[in-house]
Amino acid sequence: MVGDKKKPPTLDVTAAETPSSHATLTQSSDRVTLSHPSGASATILLYGATVISWTAHGREQLWLSTASALDGSRAVRGGIPLVFPVFGPPQAGTAAEKLPQHGFARTTRWELLGRTEAETAGDLNICVDFGLDSRSLDEETRAKWGGEFGLIYSVTLTSSTLETKMVVQNAGSGESAAFDFNVLFHTYLRVPDVEAIGIKGLNSLTYRDKTLGNTEHNESSTTLRITSQTDRVYRSAPDEIAIVDASASDKPLFTVTKVGLKDVVIWNPHAEGAEKIADWQPKDGWKEMVCVEAGSVAEWQTLEAGATWEGGVVHKAHL
Ligand code: TA6
Q1: Which whole-number Å values give the CA distances from 225 to 186, 193, 209, 240, 247, in the listed order?
Q2: Does the Cβ of 263 fall within 6 Å of ligand 1?
Q3: Domains of the chain, each with CATH number or no CATH
Q4: What class of enzyme is it (predicted)?
C-alpha cells in the first residue's frame, strides 16, 4: 500500500455507525456512506471505489443509470468512476495496450483504509480513504500492466462540496520501474436540462474531438453549449470550470476545481449515443447529465521508481 501518506487513524469500520460531531460513516459489505450534519451525503461502492451518490442541498447531484450494475459485475454507469492507468481505448504499442478501456481501477475492489474529519471555514469535512495496489489485482490483470503501483483515493464531503483526490505511488525500484499513466475522475453531473446549460472556462483551449475522428480543434466559444453528441478532451484547461444555467441568466449550477490535473473532458452521448449504450437507462437520461471529467489524460504522466504523484478535483454544488 502507498507507504508515505500517513494513514488516517484506523477506524473500527465494522461498527454500524461511528457518530462523531454528527458526521457518520456507515459501511455495509459493499459500500460506505458518509453523512454530513448539513444533510449532505455520499455513497461509495468498494467496487471501483465508485461514488454512486452525492447529495447536497437536499438533492442528488450525480447522474446514475437505472440500469447500472452495482454488484461488481461491470463498471458503474454514472456517479464518479475512476480512470487509471489508461484513459479511453488503450493504444497498440503502449504498456497499457492489453487493458480494458479506462483501465482497471473502476473494476477492481478497493480496500477501505479509514476516515478522518476536520473543520475548515466552519464547515465539517468528513474524509474516507480507499487503497488499491498491484497486489490487489488478479494475476490476469497484473500480467497486462507491469507497473508496481500503490493508490490512495480520498473522498471528502462538506455541506456543498465533494472532493475526490488520488495519490499514485510507484512502488517499484530501479530505473526500469518507471511507469506511464493517465488518471481521470469520470464525473456524471446531474443537471436539469443539458441543452440549457453553459460550460465556462474552456474558451481558446485546444481540444481533441472524439466525435470527429479525434481531430484537433480550438474552442472559440466562451460558453460551451451541448446541442449534439459531445466528446472532447480539452488540454491544459484552467483549474476552474463553471457549469451554469444559460436559460436563467447563467445561474451557477456547479463549479469544478481541479488541482494538479491538466485536462478536462466534456462528454454527453446525446440521444444517438445513449441508444448504443446497453446499460444507459432511461434512454433519454442524457438530457439530465453532463460528464465534466478532470484528469491528466492528453499525455502520459511518467512516475519514476519510488516517486509519488497527487491530483484531485473539488465539485461544488450551488443548488
Ligand atoms: O470520457 C468520455 C469517454 O471516453 C467517452 O468516449 C465514452 O466512451 C465514455 O468515456 C464512457 O466510456 P465507458 O467505457 O464507461 O462506456
Answers
A1: 19, 11, 15, 17, 11
A2: no
A3: 24-317 (2.70.98.10)
A4: isomerase
